[in-house]
Amino acid sequence: MMSETMKAVRLHAFGGPEVLVYEDAPKPEPKPGEILIRVHAIGINPPDWYLRDGYRMLPPEWQPQVSFPVIVGTDVSGVVEAVADDVRTLAPGDEVYAMIRFPAGLAGDSRAYAEYVTAPATDVGRKPAGIDHVQAAAAPMSLLTAWQFLIDLGHDEPNPLQPHRHRPVTLDGRTVLVNGAAGGVGHLALQLAKWRGARVIAVASTRHEALLQDLGADEVIDYTKVKAEEVVRGVDLVVDAVGGPSSARFLKTLTRGGALFPIFPLGLDAAAEAAERGVTVSATQVRSNGAQLTEIAGLLDNGTLRVVIDSVFPLADARLAHERAAKGHVQGKIVLTAV
Question: Where does the Enoyl reductase (ER) domain lie (predicted)?
Fold first, then answer.
């Protein structure tokens, strides 16, 4: 008997957006501890194009071994279609959202760009009732990243990025600078810092100023006109949502005892200067956490947090969505729809 099929976006080789193929693929079945989700929308994130590109930005020893064909993506919102016999926390018909098997699924085991996807029940949160599937699908990876960096790490796994455990810092009454504040992680980090009582300086380009003010930024610095690191001093925390080697330029903006949180810390060599300045540099690897997504749902429901949508594409047009991402200056998130 032939297995059921579904539409999915798969890779048969690494490359640019053109290697994303919309085609038939086997419909998955939930294993013990898993649920099957009828996907309504998929959020696009940087690891999607890292996988598509063969993780060339990672050191060779970090590059996972990928077996083709592979379905891209980690973030979904949808409706539970079926559950394994041992799952008691969710039932068919429940609306859910999730970042699936991350970082365990880096080699393509998350499989979100599809009409159906299985997920460990522990990765899945109950979708906020007050937002639609597009907004919910846009949230998981970006929101969990901001949450685990700023609010609650939520796990005891070893930190692959540094020898010590990442620890969020006090935000109430502090000044926080968010670089890349209009992007996926940045615009949510801004809102979480405001929620926790911080004064927030947002760094972005001209076109994002009105949005960032609307999201609560106390000050917006247009990096096309002035370098934030040349004019800002005495902040307590820098969240660099752009990251990379250039994060070190923000060390001089920090007060002694402050902290720099680079969301993407690879290539950053700042330990000596940080020690000299008396500041902490810390990062962490975001991890799937359904309990945290369920907890955060209330903040999305009541409007405390808002997920900004840059653009929406049908699943069949995943290539166009990746081309949009490659152009940069994305405001919030890009989403695919599967229903």
Answer: 15-336
